[in-house]
Amino acid sequence: LLDTKDLSSIVDTLSESLSNDFQVEFHSLTLFGDLKSIPTCNAKIVSQEQANKRVGTLLRTNRAICGVLGSDELEFLFGEQSAKVGSVAAVPLSHGSAFGILAIGHSDPNYYRSSMGTLFITYIAEVLNRITPSLLQK
Questions:
Q1: Could you tell me if residue 1 is inside a domain?
Q2: Has residue 138 got a pLDDT over 60?
Q3: For residue range 85-129, what is the model confidence (pLDDT) as tens digits?
Q4: Any domain includes 2
Q5: Terminal CA-CA length for the chain
Q6: Which one of 41, 58, 82, 106 is CB 3.0 to 4.6 Å from 8, fit for a cystine?
Q7: Could you please report the per-residue DSSP string of 5-68?
């Protein structure tokens, strides 16, 4: 991840690593901004306003959370796969201001629990917070 040079590579490397290296069942990277100004990549791109309406509670925590989310939050984060997601670990991405959210999910509703540590997803978020902001402009 640290060796990636563009946004598309970050998204693809992250996806491949979460799926293959860590066997994460579901994952999503949502970036905030204007679709026209962010380089083409496989991340979901939404406005900050949309994100605040749909996952504002997650964003305001400003830290990683684990547990069960509501159906609207799941649909926003995981789209078509949301009905299969039982529990989630999610972390807002920020560098001065919020620019996205990383979420990983599991089909078991008890897999990610609020009492669980968040070190893994927090470390990934710290790397993304460092390397992603400068690549968000075309």
A1: no
A2: no
A3: 999 999 999 998 899 999 999 999 999 998 888 999 999 999 999
A4: no
A5: 20
A6: 41
A7: -SHHHHHHHHHHIIIIIS--SEEEEEEES-TTTSPP-SSEEE-HHHHHHHHHHHHHH-S-EEE-
Please enumerate in sequence order all residues whose Cβ is within 8 A of that of 27, keeping only pairs 6 or more positions apart, or say none. Answer: 14, 15, 18, 19, 102, 103, 104, 105
**For strand 97-106 and strand 26-32, is the pairing parallel, antiparallel, or unpaired?**
antiparallel
Yes or no: say if 121 and 103 are a contact pair by the CB < 8 Å rule. Answer: no
CB-based contact 90:103 (threshold 8 Å): yes
Indicate if the pLDDT at residue 130 is higher than 90.
yes
Residue 103 lies in a domain: yes
The two tokens of residue 129 are 């917070």
CATH code for the domain in which residue 127 is found:
3.30.450.40
The size of the chain, in residues, is: 138
Tokens standing for residue 101: 């959210």
Structure tokens at 3: 């060796």
Between 3 and 55, the more confident residue is 55
